[in-house]
Amino acid sequence: MSQPRNGTPGDVEEIHWPSLVAAISSISAVGIAIGLGLPLLSIILEKRGISSTLIGLNTAMAGVAAMAAAPITTKLAHKYGVAPTMLWAVLISALSALGFYYAEDFWMWFPLRFAFHGATTTLFILSEFWINAASPPSKRGFVLGIYATVLSLGFAAGPLLFSILGSDGIFPFLIGAGAILLAAIPIFIARDESPALEEKPELHFMRYVFLVPTATAAVFIFGAVEAGGLSLFPIFAVRAHFTESQAALLLTMMGVGNVIFQIPLGLLSDRVGDKRPLLAGMALMGFIGSMMLPLLLDNWLLMAGLLLFWGGCVSGLYTVGLSHLGSRLTGSDLAAANAAFVFCYAMGTVAGPQAIGAAIDVAGNNGFAWAIAAFFGLYALLSGIRLMFIRKRT
Fold first, then answer.
1. Each residue of 7-29: pLDDT tens digit?
2. CA 88 – CA 72 distance, rounded (Å)
3. Quick one: which of 22, 61, 214, 293 has the most CB atoms within 10 Å?
4. Rounded to an integer, what distance in angstroms lies between the CA atom of residue 195 and that of residue 334?
5. Which of 86-95, 145-154, 376-385 is least confident?
6. Per-residue DSSP letters for 244-265?
């Protein structure tokens, strides 16, 4: 049977398509707006003469907002309902997206960033909880693979829109706000299908960070490598004597790997009962790929091929980690753990660029690859030790 209306998460036996379409399409619309907004806002601040340091500081508000929103999202959803909370988050994020156009003073962009990314964090947490709740255990990885693929396409569509629209006038802001408001339509249509949170989570929020450590550590590594890798790879590539266009194409290959590997990795995770060895294996592949980066600097094609598979391994940590979370918990516990999952991702996005940037300053250009390898290697080592400990105990 499919999940009953306002039913308890975790009792579905078939894919519940109305809920999935609502959750996936809504968050993908937000992904388009974020993909459009990030380069748009940076370019506008650059035109206004704001320093790169201050632009980076303003952009870092995204991670701060995500960490602040994660602990309270479950409480809001428990009090007001999943769908109503998501609809309010859509409204707040759309209004703040449009507010950037009217904010003349730079200081105003800090509360706007906080509001925008806090609201979109709420949407991510509740969408992923909704998807997990509406997915049968045997097909959860497949469904999450679809979600991650569509979301990746949404993020990719944002920069494409920016290349078409440019940064002049109000039109790009209207498009971004409009894309977010479109997310309200499927949520409203499926509002009676959203999972209920009748009981409160049993544990304090931070306990959920450590309740499923393999999943939360995986998404921390993903956030660190994704944020640090995407922001600093162009510097690594240009210093290695690639042209700017070649560096951009290499980043594109990472994005392609991100898209095409999501569903296969999701299907693979459905075939294994314990997702932890798969997560450890992907981290090990990420470690090997990172260490190979300095060895392939003389061959663009080999570098592109490596990044294609490497990008898939990196993104798989998120998809399979989320599937592992859904296989362990249900109901309010799952919603709270999902919030902890996104919280750890946000911490990674703050820590990654700092650690990788510092490694480049200390060790030279190859410090980029070594720092990323250290993130992957640490996770592979710790998860491997944990797996051996669990198997000995059982």
1. 444 455 677 777 888 888 888 88
2. 14
3. 22
4. 11
5. 145-154
6. HHHHHHHHHHHHHHHHHTHHHH
Per residue in 116-168, pLDDT tens? Answer: 999 999 998 899 888 888 888 888 888 888 888 888 888 777 777 887 888 88
Within 8 A by CB and 6+ apart from 212, the residues are: 324, 325, 328, 329, 337
The 3-state DSSP class for residue 319 equals helix
C-alpha–C-alpha distance, residues 262 and 149, integer Å: 6
- Which residue stretches of 60-108 are H helix? 61-80, 82-102
Q: What is the pLDDT, as a whole number, of residue 3?
A: 40
231 and 60 Cβ atoms separated by less than 8 Å: no
Rounded CA gap, 250 and 257, in Å? 11
CA distances to 12, 21, 136, 273, 356 from 16, in Å: 8, 9, 8, 22, 41
Q: What is the pLDDT of residues 91-125, one digit of tens each?
A: 999 999 999 999 989 999 999 999 999 999 999 88
Report which of 382, 296, 317 is spatially closest to residue 148, judged by C-alpha positions. Answer: 317
Count of CB atoms within 10 A of residue 57's CB? 12
* Alpha-helical runs (H) found in the chain: 17-47, 52-59, 61-80, 82-102, 109-133, 140-165, 171-182, 184-189, 205-211, 213-239, 244-260, 262-270, 276-292, 300-328, 331-363, 367-393
The Cα–Cα gap between 198 and 368 comes to 47
Max Cα–Cα distance, the chain, nearest Å: 63
Give 57 or 344, the one with higher predicted confidence. Answer: 344
Task: Give the tokens for residue 18.
Answer: 């109305």
